[in-house]
Amino acid sequence: MTDIVKFLAKNKAPFTVNIYPFLSLYLNDNFPLDFAFFDGAATPVHDNGVTYTNVFEANFDTLVAALAAVGLGEVGWTTDGDRRAKSSHAQRFYDGLLKRLASNRGTPARPSQHLDVYLFGLVDEDQKSVQPGSFELHWGIFRYDGQPKFAMDLSGHGRNTALVPAKGVQYLSRTWCALNPKASRNDLGKLLGAKIDYACTNADCTPLGYGSTCNGMDAKGNASYAFNAYYQAQSQKDEACDFQGLALPTETDPSTAACNFTIQIATSAAAAAGRLSVAAVAAALVVASV
Questions:
Q1: Chain segment 105-115, per-residue pLDDT in tens
Q2: Could you read off the pLDDT of 119-137 as tens digits, one per residue?
Q3: C-alpha distances in angstroms, 91 versus 18, 72, 95, 134?
Q4: Which domains does the chain have, with CATH numbers?
């Protein structure tokens, strides 16, 4: 690493590093929540005369202490898949981060230094690996359909503004897949667990996890969410909402106040898998923002 960094510095090439305060919380239950944000609520940490009020700057300056020159790579906050992955936390984090960047105040050890930052990410990606954690699918500041998750002022000047949603997004019919209320107890006992596993292996069920947005529903709600996730991923094909008689299509929205049962985006024939590509949504968002 030392040789690589020396080579980059010699050739005036950028060196980037990814800093995710969310991961500090995810990896350590005892990590102080407020130290992940920028609003001054955390108990300050003093290090040889330098005071830190957030882990972002502490991580940055720790790296700077080890490397002579550094740029910044990705930074962001995920919104589902873990008890700390909430839209309210993401909004609080981005609000503080963008104001801090706009001020050009630098970090405690390197004041007045400009920081270049890539926000990760633009849109949720349902095909990412969840090996690091279920939160990996939910880094977007926009939902899968290009709708903003929360208000956000990209200028960092504290304006009361919102992100521009993708325009002209078309959805499939308002039809969901839910647990069949007439399914026999015998079939439920023998088949339900395996069918839920199958649905969640082939669709995104991470919102059902502990501390996530859909956690806390009863067994019927969990099954319906899993069946609907698979049904939507399969572009609402009739055969995708059967599960050996355990599921039925419904025009009654099974969503709750906390848990949204999604409807799939209408895709072209080329999108055989039934998903609108991230690139297509991203292009729509870029056009909208311009």
A1: 999 988 988 88
A2: 999 999 988 999 999 999 9
A3: 19, 20, 6, 20
A4: 2-138 (3.20.20.80), 176-250 (no CATH)
